[in-house]
């Protein structure tokens, strides 16, 4: 079917405006792809004009809107049209790849500038997404309240400032409103409202995100939100709510997802009206200093699957009572005051995929029931006082495990050198537990490791050759404070890691031999306190034209000889350079003074000679220079 529709007269346009074609149901909200092939639907001149005016007002450094030329606007980037009328239904200018262009973190891919009121001429607009852009210093335009047909409005992480215009309350068809911050955006909104009364007008609202909106002056805002009976998602994370929201009668009982995290309520009880939200799937109460036990809260919440109680002051009785919430798959009680042993009732939570109990005071042995949680993917008990020896049997059923953090407990891992674990871990935290004395041979079976912490793990062994291969995929490696021997590892640049950075620490071991090169994507390299010899490497050919990530370089307390290579001056992100306690000689390269970010430079206890390069005086931020022998 093809529709040939040339520029419409306004009467034809009106015809379609008032037709009741049910477009919403087939309209893929959130989809990045344009839903229809519009190439043969030509323009409604006023809408084309409105779009061009919009473009004219926008700052578009990376030319994202380069396709916005010619007649057929329906095929322009981000535009979705009505199949028949050619009227603009969707304007999706979300920035999916926020690129930084320089060290000042300027977002090149972000659209900025001013939203022109011509938007108002897109009379049929149902979907407007301006998220992850940079409209810094601009307020949310009041004329958005005139886009009466809007179903979806997303201004998340777009840099808008100031008071939210109450005019948005006129959008009675709106189903999703996101004015929050976005972790994927380099720019944050700075919005506030003195009175949330306007939301009452949003009678069709299903999702409301006010993450990060300052509600200091609208402490009773929840009363207004409570009028929205079709609400299924409510995000009030980090809204400066400090007065405990009191609701005498809960209206939004269809809520499936509620986030009240990071609000510092001045009342330490969980709001009692939560009991009535029996349909909740996701509940976030983290970072609120809540402490009163919440027994019985979950007896009726039989659909709760995701529960975040992190950074509060709950004790072990809360963990015990939660063991009855058998629908849970995700439980985060990290950074609370859980004490005593992990209750063996934990085995009742047979659907658990994530059990996060780090930074508590749990002690005793990990109960055997816990090792029967076969769905577990992420188990984190970092920084507790758990005791015991873990063997192959413990892990036998944990096939799904991806992340295991046992760091900072009195635990020991005792497995045979031929152990083939049932899991493939991506994150391994075994710092300050006993893993050695042999280098753990089972690591060789783990092909997906990205984070490995076996710092201070009592390993007294040579680094095996096969580990070199594994390393190439690791973004964070800490094997410091063991007694590792052999050559330092050679790090190859990770593939596909334009912005990824790696941290590597092998400090305080017994490594000898020399260092071959500095990999391009390592941001933090610590090889201090070993027995490394030879010269500090030059950058390899071809490396010099590329910007190095290296910001922290610790080669101190080794036996490096030769001069300080001038190549170090090309590490333009270098902020911390420690070469002290080596056998370096010769002059200090003058060009070190060109490193603008350098703020710690330690060259003490070498046999350097000559003058202090006067260029070091350029280092405005330098706080510790160097001593001469
Ligand atoms: C647009 O219309 C022309 C003329 O009818 C036709 O040849 C062409 O295939 C159509 N293009 C699309 C993409 O439908
Ligand atoms: C956003 O825009 C403002 C004003 O133009 C500018 O100062 C700021 O650096 C930009 N932020 C980013 C992350 O690009
Ligand atoms: C909207 O369109 C009308 C004509 O339909 C035009 O007169 C008016 O200037 C337009 N407004 C904007 C802001 O583009
Ligand atoms: C709004 O956009 C942000 C960032 O693009 C996204 O994370 C969020 O899910 C969107 N909100 C809604 C309600 O779709
Ligand atoms: C829209 O909302 C504003 C502020 O709440 C109000 O003053 C105005 O009358 C409303 N306009 C329409 C057309 O409803
Ligand atoms: C939030 O708004 C209040 C006034 O309503 C103001 O005093 C406070 O500084 C704001 N907080 C932030 C973090 O902007
Ligand atoms: C609950 O909704 C009803 C109407 O739907 C309204 O009359 C009542 O005021 C609401 N209750 C609260 C506490 O907002
Ligand atoms: C919760 O539900 C109970 C029973 O349905 C009802 O009596 C009570 O008033 C409700 N409480 C709130 C705060 O809505
Ligand atoms: C805290 O909230 C509970 C439940 O709403 C209430 O009973 C109690 O009085 C409040 N405590 C304070 C100190 O406000
Ligand atoms: C957290 O709650 C405790 C009481 O449970 C209180 O003593 C403490 O001051 C609170 N901390 C903050 C930051 O509000
Ligand atoms: C590194 O990662 C790639 C891609 O995920 C994978 O194919 C490869 O097997 C991994 N190599 C090692 C040694 O783990
Ligand atoms: C100087 O460095 C050497 C290693 O090169 C070390 O043995 C010695 O203890 C260091 N001296 C001082 C005073 O730190």
Automatic annotation (TrEMBL):
SMART domains: LRR_TYP. The lineage of its organism: Eukaryota, Viridiplantae, Streptophyta, Embryophyta, Tracheophyta. Coiled coil: none annotated. This is Receptor-like protein EIX1. The keyword Cell cycle does not apply. Residues 1-26 form the signal peptide. Pfam families: LRR_1, LRR_8, LRRNT_2. Transmembrane segments: none annotated. Keywords: Cell membrane, Glycoprotein, Leucine-rich repeat, Membrane, Repeat, Signal, Transmembrane, Transmembrane helix. SUPFAM superfamilies: L domain-like. It comes from the Eukaryota. It is a single-pass type I membrane protein. The gene is LOC140021354. Belongs to the RLP family. InterPro entries: Leu-rich_rpt, Leu-rich_rpt_typical-subtyp, LRR_dom_sf, LRR_N_plant-typ, RLP23-like. Residues 45-81 form the Leucine-rich repeat-containing N-terminal plant-type domain. The keyword Glycoprotein applies. It is found in: Cell membrane.
């Amino acid at each position: 079917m093809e529709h040939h529709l040339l520029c419409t007269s306004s009467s034809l346009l009106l015809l379609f405006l008032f037709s009741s074609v049910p477009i919403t149901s087939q309209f893929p909200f959130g989809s990045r792809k344009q839903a229809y092939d519009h190439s043969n639907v030509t323009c409604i001149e006023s809408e084309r004009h409105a779009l061009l005016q919009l473009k004219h007002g926008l700052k578009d450094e990376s030319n994202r809107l380069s396709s916005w030329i010619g007649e057929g606007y329906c095929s322009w980037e981000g535009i979705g049209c009505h199949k028949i009328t050619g009227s603009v239904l969707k304007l999706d200018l979300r920035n999916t790849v926020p690129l930084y262009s320089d060290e000042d973190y300027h977002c090149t891919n972000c659209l900025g500038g001013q939203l022109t009121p011509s938007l108002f001429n897109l009379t049929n607009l149902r979907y407007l997404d301006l998220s992850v852009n940079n409209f810094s210093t601009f307020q949310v335009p009041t004329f958005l309240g005139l886009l009466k047909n809007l179903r979806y409005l997303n201004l998340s992480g777009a840099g808008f400032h100031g008071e939210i215009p109450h005019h948005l309350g006129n959008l009675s068809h709106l189903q999703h409103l996101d004015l929050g911050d976005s972790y994927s955006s380099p720019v944050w909104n700075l919005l506030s409202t003195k009175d949330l009364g306007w939301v009452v007008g949003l009678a069709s609202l299903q999702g409301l995100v006010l993450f990060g909106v300052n509600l200091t002056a609208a402490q009773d805002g929840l009363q207004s939100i409570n009028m929205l009976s079709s609400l299924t998602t409510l995000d009030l994370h980090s809204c400066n709510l400090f007065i405990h929201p009191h609701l005498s009668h809960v209206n939004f009982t269809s809520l499936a997802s509620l986030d009240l995290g990071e609000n510092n309520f001045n009342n330490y009880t969980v709001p009692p009206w939560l009991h009535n939200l029996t349909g909740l799937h996701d509940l976030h109460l983290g970072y609120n200093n809540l402490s009163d036990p919440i027994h019985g809260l979950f007896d009726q919440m039989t659909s709760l699957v995701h529960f975040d109680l992190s950074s509060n002051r709950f004790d072990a009785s809360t963990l015990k009572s939660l063991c009855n919430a058998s629908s849970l798959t995700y439980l985060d009680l990290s950074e609370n005051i859980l004490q005593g042993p992990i209750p063996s009732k934990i085995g009742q939570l047979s659907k658990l995929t994530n059990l996060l109990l780090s930074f508590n005071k749990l002690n005793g042995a990990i109960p055997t029931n816990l090792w029967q949680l076969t769905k577990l993917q992420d188990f984190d008990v970092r920084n507790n006082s758990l005791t015991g020896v873990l063997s192959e049997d413990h892990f036998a059923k944990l096939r799904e495990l991806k992340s295991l953090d046992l760091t900072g407990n009195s635990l020991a891992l005792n497995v045979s050198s031929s152990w083939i674990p049932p899991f493939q871990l991506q994150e391994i935290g075994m710092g300050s537990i006993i893993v050695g004395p042999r280098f753990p041979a089972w690591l060789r079976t783990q092909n997906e490791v990205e984070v490995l912490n076996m710092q201070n793990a009592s390993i007294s062994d040579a680094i095996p050759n096969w580990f070199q291969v594994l390393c190439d995929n690791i973004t964070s490696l800490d094997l410091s404070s063991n007694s590792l021997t052999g050559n330092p590892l050679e790090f190859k640049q990770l593939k596909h890691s334009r912005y990824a950075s790696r941290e590597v620490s092998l400090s305080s071991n017994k490594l000898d031999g020399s260092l071959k090169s500095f990999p391009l994507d390592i941001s933090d390299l610590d090889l201090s306190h070993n027995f490394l010899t030879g010269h500090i490497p030059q950058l390899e050919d071809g490396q010099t034209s590329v910007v190095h990530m290296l910001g922290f370089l610790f080669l101190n307390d080794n036996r490096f000889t030769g001069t300080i290579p001038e190549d170090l001056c090309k590490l333009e992100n270098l902020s911390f350079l420690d070469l002290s306690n080596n056998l370096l000689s010769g002059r200090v390269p003058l060009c070190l003074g060109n490193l603008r970010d350098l703020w710690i430079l330690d060259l003490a206890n070498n046999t350097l000679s000559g003058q202090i390069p006067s260029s070091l005086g350029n280092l405005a931020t330098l706080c510790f220079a160097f001593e001469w022998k």
